[in-house]
Design brief:
There is one protein chain. The protein is an alpha/beta fold. It has one domain: Rossmann fold (3-Layer(aba) Sandwich), CATH 3.40.50.150. The protein is about 35% helix and about 25% strand. The chain is built from eight helices and eight strands. The chain has an eight-stranded mixed sheet. Helix 6 links the parallel strand 4 and strand 5. The longest helix has 14 residues.
Length: about 210
C-alpha cells in the first residue's frame, strides 16, 4: 500500500517525467510497439496515467492508484481500480496483456504473472517492459534507490529472472527488444535481443494446455 500511496500523492510528478524525457519515452514506446500483437483485444496492467495504453490503442487498463487512474481516464481510457494479483476479468478474456515498468513494484510477481496467464486466450501474449537490473541504468537505479521517490521500494530483476518467472507461469517462445544509446548524433534506437540495452521488452506466449 505504501507504493500506491506514493504514486497517488505524486501522480502529476510521475506523469511529467514523460515530457521531460521525451526521447527516452518515445524509444520505450517504440520498443513495446514492436512486440504488441497486431489486432486483438488487449489490456494494460498498471496503466498509470495512460502514457503507453493511449498511443498503443489499448482502451482498457488496471491501476491500483486512484489518482493515476483518474488521470488515465482523462485520456478516454477505461480503467479498473484493482491490482495485478487480482484482476477483475474472466478467464481467457484478452488476446494480449501489457505491463510496463510494473513488475518491479508488484507485491507478488509470480501470482501476477499467473493472473495474466489466466485472463489470456490460448496462444495469447504477455508483453513486459522493464529495467534490466544488470544494465548500466539498472545498476544506477539500485545504487540510488534509497533516494528515489518512486523506486525506493522497487525490486529490480534481470532478464534471466523475468524469463524464469514467465516460464514458471506458463509462458514460452520469448522475443526481446531493447533500447540503446548509439551516439550523440543518432540518439536512442530499438534493437532485437537483450544484454546491451537498459530498457528491455519481452513477449511470451501462453502455453496451450498450461494451467
Amino acid at each position: 500500500m505504501a507504493r500506491i500511496a506514493t504514486f497517488d500523492e505524486h501522480a502529476e510528478q510521475y506523469d511529467a517525467w514523460f515530457d521531460r524525457h521525451r526521447e527516452i519515452y518515445l524509444a520505450e514506446l517504440a520498443a513495446v510497439r514492436e512486440l504488441i500483437p497486431v489486432g486483438g483485444k488487449g489490456v494494460e496492467i498498471g496503466i498509470g496515467t495512460g502514457r503507453f495504453a493511449g498511443p498503443l490503442g489499448i482502451p482498457v487498463g488496471v491501476e491500483p492508484s486512484p489518482r493515476m487512474a483518474e488521470l488515465a481516464r482523462r485520456h478516454g481510457l477505461l480503467v479498473f481500480e484493482a491490482t495485478a494479483e487480482a484482476l477483475p476479468f474472466s478467464d481467457g478474456e484478452f488476446d494480449f496483456v501489457l505491463m510496463v515498468t510494473v513488475i518491479c513494484f508488484l507485491d507478488d510477481v509470480e501470482l501476477a504473472l499467473r493472473e495474466a496467464h489466466r485472463v489470456l486466450r490460448p496462444e495469447g501474449a504477455l508483453v513486459i517492459g522493464f529495467i534490466d537490473r544488470e544494465s548500466a541504468l539498472g545498476r544506477q537505479y539500485r545504487l540510488k534507490k534509497d533516494r528515489s521517490l518512486f523506486y525506493r521500494d522497487a525490486a529490480f530483476y534481470s532478464v534471466q529472472d523475468v524469463e524464469s518467472m514467465l516460464s514458471r507461469a506458463g509462458f514460452s517462445d520469448f522475443e526481446y527488444r531493447q533500447t540503446l544509446f548509439r551516439d550523440s548524433s543518432s540518439g536512442l534506437s530499438v534493437e532485437e535481443g537483450h544484454g546491451r540495452g537498459s530498457f528491455v521488452v519481452v513477449r511470451g506466449s501462453k502455453h496451450l494446455g498450461a494451467p
